[in-house]
Amino acid sequence: MTAKANPPVLPRLMVEEAVRAALAEDLGRAGDITTYATISDDARATAVLASREAGVVAGLAFAETAFALIDPAVKFTALVRDGDRVAPGQVIARAEGSARAILSAERVGLNFLMYLSGIATYTAKFADLIAHTHAKVCDTRKTVPGMRAFAKYAVRCGGGANHRFGLDDAILIKDNHIAVAGGVVRAIEAARAYAGHLVKIEVEVDSIAQMEEALSVGADVILLDNMSPELLEKAVKINAGRAKLEASGNISFDTIRAVAETGVDYISTSKITMAAPTLDVGLDIGIE
Q1: Which of 55, 60, 128, 286 has the fewest Cβ atoms within 10 Å of its own Cβ atom?
Q2: What is the pLDDT of residues 177-208, one digit of tens each?
C-alpha cells in the first residue's frame, strides 16, 4: 500500500516575514490615509473572499496573516484548504472585525492569495494532463526573486513536484559546466568527489551518447534536454531504471502528455512558476 503524501506546509515564520514586508511597503510612511479619512475607528465589517473562476487555492495563510498583523482581533475563517479546487463564485474565506483593518490589509492579502493560487491552478492543469502516467511535473529555479519558497509551495498545492530550491541543495551539471569541465564523465566524477554523500547529482544531456556516459559513472538523475518523444522513449529503454530521468524543454499543454507517455519520471518546466496567470479572487465587504 502506498503511503499518502502529507499536505504541503510552509513555516509560519516565513509567511509572517513576507507579509510584514509587503504591508510595510503598502502602508508607507503614513498608513492607509484613505481608510483613516473615510472610515470611523469603531466601524466593523464582514468581508467575503470568493474565487471568480475555477482554480486551485494556495496562500490562505498569507491572507490570514495580513489581517492579523494589522489587527490581531480580526477573525479570519478559511472555508477551504490550500490545495482544494474551487468553482467560480465559491466563497473561500471570511474576515470579520475592524473595518479599517480589513480595508488596509485587503490588497496585500489578495496579492499573495491570487499569485500563489494562480501557480497552483496552472500546475494542476499540467498535472491533470499526465495523471494517467507515473511522471510528475516539476518546477525550476526560474521564480520571482524572493518568492521561490512560496512559489514552490504553490506548485505542491497544485499537485506538482519541486526541483532543487537553490544552488546549494543538489548538483545539476548543465551544458556549460560540461564544456568547461572537459566532458560529462569528468564533470560527474569531480562532482562526486566534492559532494557529500546525501547530495544528489544530476546531469543535463542533449544526446543518447551523453546519457550513456552519464550512466557509466552512476549519475543519480539525467536531464534529457529538448529531446523528441521518440528519442525519450529510446532513452527510457537504454536507462532501464538505473537513473531517474527528467525531460525538459518546450513543455506546454500540447506537448506534456506525449512526453509523459514515454516513461520519463519527471518533466520540468518554468512555465508553472513564470507564466501562470493569477487566480481572480475578490473581496466584498459589508459594514455592520
Answers
A1: 286
A2: 999 999 999 999 999 999 989 999 999 999 99
Is 194 part of a structural domain of the chain? yes
> What size, in residues, is the chain?
288
Which of 82, 139, 204, 246 is flagged as catalytic? 204
Residue 216 belongs to a domain: yes
* Catalytic residue (one of 20, 85, 94, 107): 107
Number of domains in the chain: 2
Q: Which domain holds residue 22?
A: 12-123+276-287
225 is catalytic: yes
From the list 20, 85, 174, 234, the catalytic residue is 174
Q: Strands 244-248, 221-225: parallel, antiparallel or unpaired by DSSP? A: parallel
Q: Are residues 174 and 62 in the same domain?
A: no
How far apart are alpha carbons 194 and 204 in whole angstroms?
A: 18
Span 208-218, pLDDT tens digits: 999 999 999 99
With beta carbons less than 8 A apart as the criterion, state whether 133 and 232 touch.
no
My answer on whether 269 and 281 are in the same domain is no
Q: Is residue 5 part of a domain?
A: no
pTM: 0.95
The catalytic residue among 85, 94, 142, 164 is 142
Residues 164 and 191 in one domain: yes
Q: Is 142 a catalytic site residue?
A: yes
Whether residue 3 lies inside any domain: the answer is no
- Residue 280 designated active-site: no
Contact status, residue 45 vs residue 287, Cβ threshold 8 Å: yes
> 232 near 262, Cβ under 8 Å?
yes
Task: Say yes or no: 85 and 97 in one domain.
Answer: yes
Same domain, 27 and 92: yes
Catalytic residue among 64, 106, 225, 265: 225
